[in-house]
Amino acid sequence: MKAHSTYKGTRRKLLLAFDVGTTYSGISYSILDPGQIPEIKAVTRFPAQEYISGASKIPTLIYYDRAGAVKAVGAEAVSESTIQSAEEHGWTKAEWFKLHLLPNPHTSPTFARAIPPLPPNKTASNALSDVLHYLHSCAASYIQETHSNGRDLWAQTQHEVEYVFSHPNGWEGFQRQQMRDASVAAGIVPDERAAEERIMFVSEGEASLHYAVHNGLPQGALENNDGVIIVDAGGGTIDLSAYAQRGVGNFEEIAAPQCHLHGSLSVTFNARTFLKSHLAQSTYLDDLDHIVDCFDKTTKLRFRNAQEPQYIKFGSTRDNDKDCNIRIGQMKLSGSEVASFFAPAVQCIVNAVLEQRRTSHKPISHVVLVGGFSGSDWLFEQVSQALHLKGLNVVRPDNHINKAVSDGAISFYLDHLVRTRVSTLTYGQFCSLKYNPLDPEHRARPASQFTAYSGETRIRGYFDVILAKNTQVSETKEFREEYCQKSTERDFFRRIVYRIECYRGGEGCPRWRDTDPTMYAPLCTIEMDFSHLALQPRYLLDAHGQVRPGTAYYQVDYAIVLSFGLTELKAQIAWMENGKERRSPAKIIYDPDITTT
Question: What does pTM read for this prediction?
Fold first, then answer.
């Protein structure tokens, strides 16, 4: 196991990582003391779970009353008393709500229909905020109760806690902004500025790499310049990321990360579809929810052999239905039927791994499975066998693979192993070009031609690529675009907007909006404020070099500096002032109508 580096800070700090999963959530933390090597710890005691030793995760589940108040969260929400109270008082349940935030391109229409609706008057962000508030209170209680001088430690650090939030590989800027907003609403941080300063994000794939480096990355996996694919198989999503080592403690991403809706919930969804049809003519159809729940908690977890019959124990000895293979409270299924529930997830992982290997910038020989779903022996064996035939070695760490993301998120903060990442989309902006009558693509677009203010003929709809998909980008790489804005009004410079578009289609080199119009979408807008500059009026001159009356205007020359190689897009504005370049962060605003379901 690789040791973490000594903490070089000058004062004690508390670091919390929240892994809000589709089905289960967990917390890891580290107390950073100057000159000491940090340790990664997990919160292993939660309300209603106090007597389960080492329980590091709780269900991502909330009950609300009719007025919208939170009544139970986590393990409390699955207790018999809570379920009974919910039935008596008409409480509503929020589950799988994280999937409501997935961007459109990652959402399967069939599976999307299976996502439970949110409670009345609640958004996914509301539910996320309530879970974050609960996790934060659990972390506070655990740290204060289990550490010597824990109350003093919490009092000393609570107002400057730094957070790492993990998220599926498929999440984009809008989803990260939703998490920041939810953290403010939860009272974790006081305001938007604190959320920007004290919360950072890491993809589940990258967090899992950090975990694997410290907990079971196979010997020789990264030798000979080979890469490794990390498969984080969770409840809702399958996240794949590929990396190679570039010297000690330095990794590069070598293929565009992927996110697929084929987590363990897809097995449950497939089982429900089968059982609904199987019980269509039976009185036990009314018990479908309970039977599926029993399958989920027992049969699915234990399944190992497709050659043997499988059983769902859901009732008592009085429950019998010969036509549906129900005898003394157990439903008998063939092993092949249960295997079919897993088949789409297995095929998804195999295909995705092979696709990543095909598009990788370096050869790949190893695959590491982490996440709660990878604990399924059937899933692991099927994936291993299929990929072994393709020359890939598949392994999974021995210890606590369901903690890979939260522990890995802490390691991401401490160790910062990945310095180069791969773009998942093609980014750019639409602009106009000077019309070229010799260019057949220009001639083919007469409706896009227009006469500019200068009198020249131009053509609209050209996609100016800033960064192409599947390009490796280092954290220090900057993309700089130079601009000039003019206006007769000084107030114009209080809000200048720059729009970044993304292309999600299959063209290798997209050029024109009209060739694949549905695949272009606004990613975000960048807002800039230059009102602080001491702008001096300029004037238009006539043919004799004299000032033309009434032609005063103001001009700002600036650059937009984009960083795509970080865990999230960052933008700065740059301008010259007194002969020196000045820079300031720019505000990024994401469009929710485009990026989410």
Answer: 0.88
